Amino acid sequence: MAEIIAAGFDFDNARKNAKYPYEDWFNGKVWKISRPEDFQITPKSMQINLYAAAARYDLRLRTKLEGGDSIIIQAVEWGDDE
Q1: What pTM was estimated for this model as a whole?
Q2: What is the pLDDT of residue 65?
């Protein structure tokens, strides 16, 4: 059942408790993350999660599925064409 919680809910703290280290992965560097070391779901599902997380951080994301169990990712600022 839905409930109203305190108006002072700390959304920033909720980000810190995320299941995956998005703040590390979204630092602008090119990362290769792999299953099962970095995530346990299918790579396609993880790719979808990454795009959703990037949107929450107001970032654009480049991804490439690689080798069946890995994803190459790079987060960039909106308008960054490099």
Answers
A1: 0.76
A2: 96
